[in-house]
Structure formats: C-alpha cells, structure tokens
C-alpha cells in the first residue's frame, strides 16, 4: 500500500488535507495494523490526500503520563510537537482514542494546537457527505452487532453517536449492552494497564466485559480502539467463541462494506 | 417562664452557631492546605453546573427511582427550613406562629404543604433505611462502609425521621390546643393540617397541661435536634448537603480525558532540550516542589473539597471496572481515605498550632500501591459522581509520586518506559519499522 509520509510530501512541495496519526498499536501490533490498513484504504478510496509521519511518529506519551511518568510524557510531547509544528500540521485524524485524547486535549497547552478528530467521526462525516457509499446487501446486513464504547472516546471526550451512526449504515441489527455509552464498562487496557499484568481480583476486566458483549448474541463486537480490540479479542478466545464471534474495528466494518 | 425560654433559646442558638462556625472554619483551613489551583473554564459554565448538577441533581437521575426519592428528602429539607426560620424567630421573640398573622390563609396552605413534605421525607427515609440495611445492594454492603460510615448513614436517616415526627406531633398538639381554645393557642387559629390531624385521636385523652407540655417538648426537641444535626454535619458524610454546591461550581468543565499539566516538568524538559532558554543564577537554583502527591497537602484544594463533599454513596465504586472485578481499588475509599487523613492532619494542627510530622502520609498509610495500580483511568467514577468529585485526579497524582519520587513502578512499566524512551513506542520494536505496514 502506497502511503506518503510527510517528509515525502514536503519534498514534492505538497501538503496533505489531513495527517493520519497511526499510533504505536496501529503501527506495530499485527492485529491493529489491519485496522490501520483498512482505514488507510478508506481514505484512499475517498480521495482524501493524507500523509503519515512514518518513522518520525513517536508515542504520544499517554501510557507514560497515566502511569505517573510525567517526565517521559513531556519529552515525547515536546518532540512530537516539534515535528508536527515543523510540518505546519493543521488537522490530524487518528484511529486510537488514546492518541486522540492526548493530541486533542493535552498537547494544546504544551504548544501543539491542531484540529484533531477520531476516525469514527471522520467516517461519519464522509458517509454524511456521500463520499462513502455502502454496498447494497453488504456483508453485515441483518447481522447482529454490538458496539463497545472506548472510555477515551466516550466518557473522556463525549463521542458516543458518531460510531453508532456509522454502524447504522451497515444495515445490521445493532444491539446495546446494558452498560453502554457513559455507563460503558472499560475493556481493562486504559491507564497503562495494557502494559502490565492486572492486579489480583476475582476476574479480569476484559473477561467481564466480553461476557456482557457475548450475552447480546452478537456475531460482531464493534470497537473503535486498538486496545479495546485486543482486550475483547482475548475475551472472546477465553470464552472459546472465536469461531462465531469477531471483534472488528469500525474502520474494518466500513472498509468491508464500501462500494 | 416565657422569658426563660427566650433566653435559653438565644443562648442555645448562639452556642450551636458558634460551634458550627468554628468547625466550618477548621474545615476551610484544612481544604486550603491543598495546593492552589485555578479552575479552568468560564464562570457561566460553572454556574450552569451548579444549577444542573447541584440544584437539579442531574446525575442522580441516572437512576430515576432513587433520584425522585432523594429529591423528596432534598426538597423537604430545603423547604421545611422556612418553617425553621419561623421557629427561630418565635424562639427569640417569645412569639407563637409569628407568620400566621401576616400570611393569613397562605400560612395554613404553607404548613399543610410542609406536612406533605414531612410525610414524604419520613417515608423515603424509611425506604432508604431498608435499602441500606435489608436489601442486598452491593455498594451498601461494601467493606468500605464497615464501622462508623455505616452507622453514620443510619444515624442521619433516623435523625430525619425523628425530626419529621416531632414536626408532625408539634402541629397535632398545637391544633388540638387551638380547638380547645387554650391560652394563646386560641388566638392563632390555623385550622387542622392534613397529616398531623390524623394524630389527634392519640392526643385527645391528654389534658390541656399535658398537651401544652407535649407541644413545648416537641418544639424544643425539634429545634435542638436541628442544632445538633447542624453540628453533626461537619463530622459526617452528610456534609454534602452544603459542599455539593461549591463542588459543582469548581468542577472541571474540560473533557474528562484531560489530565492536569505539570508546568515544572514541562519547563525542565524544555530547558533540557533548549538549554539556551534555561534561566541562570538564582532562578535556576530555585527548588521545585514534590512531583506528584504523597500526602493531602500535596493535592490541590479541589481534591480536598472533593473529599469533604463525598457522601459515600458508592456510585463510583459500583461503576469502577477494577472494583467490579474484585480488585482492591474502590474510588469511594480513595475519597474516604483522603478525608480521614485530612481530618487527622487537621487535628494535628489544632493540637500543635502547626503540622508536626507524624511519620504518616496519605500514600502508603491510607492508600496502597495495589489500589493505585488497579486503576484503568476509565473515568467511570468521575462520570457517576452526583456531586462532581474526581477520585481519578487523586489516584493519578499519587501515581506520579510513586513513579517520579520513589521510582516505584512494576517491572513491566519500567520496561514500557524504556521502550518509549529508546524505541518511541511502548513495545520494543525498532522505530524504523513504524511504517512497515505500508510495505506489505
């Protein structure tokens, strides 16, 4: 897949409409790479001129900050803002709610001011503008889908409707879990938990959440965060349901349903 | 006789208000031990929060049935205070039902509506006692509440039941004395009231003197009860009835996902990267404060106001993914620990005129690493809190202290830190492979 980096665009004297901030999971995690590719393919199909930072992108510092390492966070933020401002970036889209939250809410007071949107919001806009058209009788028509709210998208940034509106265009049967929207249960990965073993308890958070998702009888669990995706996929495996239930990102669902 | 009652009433009022003011002053002092913080956002948005969250109890309505019941107690409490105003003035001037004359027929209507509220409050308090003690509701069964907190909650409900019963009995004996035309009662004819008249058959057998004694006793117990309750508040979880209002005003109006910046560290990093910007001489030698929070005085005053505003309802812990799955963390306990420690520090200051190091701290002695490590920063606790408390903000500041001052992090986090530092990602991948996905 040919994706331009900012450095290449700069060299050709071009500037993108939007910067795609891929994030660490989207760049390195094999499962999340598929989400990245699905989203990049949507951008290409809709003719949006986008670029990535490529090798110049670095962790936003979210897990460092939330685990308590403010020094490391500030170092990452400083370097990222230098790079972003150096390229004169105005608008950023990201497939990771954690990157989204940090770039949107925490970089401005450090000197990084950009219009930051999450990919689910961009997808909704593209659908509204008619730039994304779904196939008639797409692969998810009539299938039962439940959407898992990411904490950093939902409670942290009040984005509940965009992912749901995108899912509605799939002609699927959308069912909600009891704990949804602002009451949504965390997948267990936030606050740098992704990078350590859970503290001892009666059960794992992702098992609890996945059981709730499975109780809806959905064939697909839709996520909007690469970390949620990992946690729920593990939960589905724990329940030995991977044959009948798939955890897919909203971008993957759209990419598979587009004309 | 009447003059003795007046003098006694005035002395009791002064004592009750003085004691309350003294304790309130200490609480204010304790809250201001916290670091200064400037609430972000405009005052318009803050006032909106006061109206919606505090007056309107918007968050309570996430559970509509409980919200309506709670609203009855709240409305009853506020509106019946008009009656308390009359009781206070009667007490000072030795009058009886001072407002009855000027308000005319409106007066009977008012007292009647107070009786409806009183019966409403009484009923809901009984239901709440059952909810707390009989029904198996997880957040009330929690070990967070073992000991004093559980008793505290029951004492509050019982006190309200007693106060409301006294109010009804007071009206019942008063209206009966009116009917019998006894002394000054005969000159303040209000007519019977909706609920207290039901009590008349109970009192009919009593003679006029007994009835007067009952009326006086109820009047005194009611007002003494209110004064006692006022002075109980600062020691109780019930303080939320006052602090919920300022706490809603000072609640952050930014997105919940945004963490507080640390300008000290921002500057240090900036000077490390651009040494030419670093100050020289005295300014460079200026010592910085602690990084993160170890004890209550390292938190900001909003965190401490939060601690005093908490009414230990446990909605936070009931929504906390860590708590739900049996981890040690309970956001409610974070708030209770913060208040307990702050009260301890306050008592230390009362005794020594200043804080004498007692070798204890909020971190470790009250809140353990294991609790802090279980948090997923999901903001469920913040979202649930009806009175705009953020347990998360305290957790994150304590985490900062653990990592930056104690270098105390799980090994996996240290690995993550070094990966971010050296490989610019939380995993140990080569930064050169970051765009590898575009190649396949």
Automatic annotation (TrEMBL), chain A:
The UniProt record lists the Cysteine-rich domain at: 19-104, 145-232
Q: Which GO terms describe its molecular function?
A: 4 iron, 4 sulfur cluster binding; metal ion binding; oxidoreductase activity
A Gene Ontology term for the protein's cellular component:
plasma membrane
Which controlled-vocabulary keywords does the entry list?
Answer: 4Fe-4S, Iron, Iron-sulfur, Metal-binding, Oxidoreductase
The record's section on PANTHER family has:
IRON-SULFUR-BINDING OXIDOREDUCTASE FADF-RELATED, IRON-SULFUR-BINDING OXIDOREDUCTASE FADF-RELATED-RELATED
Q: Can you name this protein?
A: (Fe-S)-binding protein
TrEMBL record, chain B:
Instruction: Note the PROSITE patterns from the entry.
Output: 4FE4S_FER_1 (PS00198), 4FE4S_FER_2 (PS51379)
Keyword 4Fe-4S belongs to the record: yes
Could you name the Gene Ontology cellular component terms for this entry? plasma membrane
Alphabetized, the UniProt keywords read:
4Fe-4S, Iron, Iron-sulfur, Membrane, Metal-binding, Oxidoreductase, Transmembrane, Transmembrane helix
Name the residues that span the membrane: 6-25, 65-85, 105-130, 151-170, 219-235
4Fe-4S ferredoxin-type domain location is 301-331, 364-395
Q: Know the name of this protein?
A: (Fe-S)-binding protein
The organism encoding this protein is: Deminuibacter soli
């Amino acid at each position: 897949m040919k994706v331009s980096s900012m450095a290449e665009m700069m060299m050709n004297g071009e500037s993108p409409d939007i910067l795609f901030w891929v994030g660490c999971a989207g760049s390195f995690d094999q499962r999340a790479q598929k989400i990245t590719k699905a989203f990049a393919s949507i951008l290409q199909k809709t003719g949006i001129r986008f670029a990535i930072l490529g090798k110049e992108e670095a962790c936003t510092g979210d897990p460092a900050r939330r685990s308590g390492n403010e020094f490391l966070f500030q170092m990452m933020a400083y370097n990222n803002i230098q790079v972003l401002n150096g390229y004169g970036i105005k608008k950023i889209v990201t497939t990771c709610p954690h990157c989204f939250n940090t770039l949107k809410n925490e970089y401005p007071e450090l000197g990084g001011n950009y219009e930051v949107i999450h990919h689910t919001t961009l997808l909704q806009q593209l659908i509204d503008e008619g730039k994304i058209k779904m196939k008639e009788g797409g692969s998810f028509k009539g299938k039962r889908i439940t959407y898992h709210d990411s904490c950093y998208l939902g409670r942290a940034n009040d984005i509940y409707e965009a992912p749901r509106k995108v899912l509605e265009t799939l002609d699927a049967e959308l069912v909600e879990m009891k704990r949804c929207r602002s009451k949504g249960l965390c997948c267990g990965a936030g606050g740098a938990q992704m990078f350590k073993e859970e503290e001892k308890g009666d059960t794992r958070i992702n098992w609890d959440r996945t059981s709730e998702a499975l109780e809806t009888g959905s064939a697909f669990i839709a996520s909007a965060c690469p970390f949620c995706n990992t946690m729920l996929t593990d939960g589905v495996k724990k329940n030995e349901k991977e044959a009948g239930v798939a955890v897919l990102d909203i971008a993957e669902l759209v990419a598979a349903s587009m004309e | 006789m009447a003059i003795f009652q007046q003098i006694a009433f005035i002395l009791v009022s002064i004592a009750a208000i003085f004691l309350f003011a003294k304790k309130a002053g200490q609480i204010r002092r304790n809250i201001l031990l916290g670091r200064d913080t400037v609430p972000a956002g405009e005052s318009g948005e803050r006032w909106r929060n006061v109206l919606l969250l505090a007056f309107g109890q918007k968050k309570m309505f996430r559970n509509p049935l409980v919200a309506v019941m709670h609203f009855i107690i709240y409305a009853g409490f506020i509106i019946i205070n008009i009656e308390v105003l009359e009781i206070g003035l009667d007490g000072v001037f030795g009058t009886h039902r001072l407002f009855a004359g000027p308000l005319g027929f409106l007066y009977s209507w008012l007292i009647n509506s107070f009786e409806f509220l009183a019966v409403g409050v009484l009923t809901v308090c009984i239901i709440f006692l059952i909810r707390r003690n009989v029904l198996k509701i997880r957040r009330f069964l929690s070990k967070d509440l073992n000991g004093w907190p559980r008793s505290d909650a029951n004492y509050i409900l019982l006190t309200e039941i007693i106060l409301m019963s006294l109010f009804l009995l007071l009206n019942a004996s008063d209206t009966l004395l009116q009917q019998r035309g006894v002394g000054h009662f005969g000159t303040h004819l209000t007519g019977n009231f909706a609920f207290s008249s039901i009590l008349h058959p109970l009192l009919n057998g009593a003679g006029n003197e007994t009835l007067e004694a009952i009326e006086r006793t109820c009047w005194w117990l009611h007002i003494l009860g209110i004064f006692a309750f006022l002075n109980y508040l600062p020691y109780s979880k019930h303080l939320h009835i006052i602090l919920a209002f300022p706490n809603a005003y000072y609640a952050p109006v930014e997105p919940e996902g945004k963490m507080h910046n640390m300008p000290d560290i921002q500057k240090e990093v900036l000077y490390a990267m651009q040494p030419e910007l670093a100050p020289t001489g005295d300014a460079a030698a200026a010592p910085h404060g602690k990084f993160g929070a170890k004890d209550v005085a390292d938190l900001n005053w909003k965190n401490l106001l939060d601690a005093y505003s908490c009414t230990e309802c446990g909605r936070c812990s009931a929504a906390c993914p860590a708590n739900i799955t049996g981890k040690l963390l309970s956001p409610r306990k974070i708030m209770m620990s913060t208040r307990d420690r702050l009260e301890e520090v306050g008592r230390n200051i009362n005794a020594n005129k200043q804080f004498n190091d007692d070798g204890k701290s909020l971190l470790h002695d009250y809140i353990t690493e294991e609790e802090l490590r279980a948090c997923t920063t999901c903001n469920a606790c913040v979202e649930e809190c009806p009175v705009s408390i953020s347990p998360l903000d305290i957790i994150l500041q304590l985490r900062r202290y653990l990592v930056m001052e104690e270098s105390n992090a799980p090994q996996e986090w240290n690995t993550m830190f070094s990966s971010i530092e050296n490989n610019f990602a939380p995993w140990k991948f080569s930064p050169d492979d970051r765009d590898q996905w575009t190649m396949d």
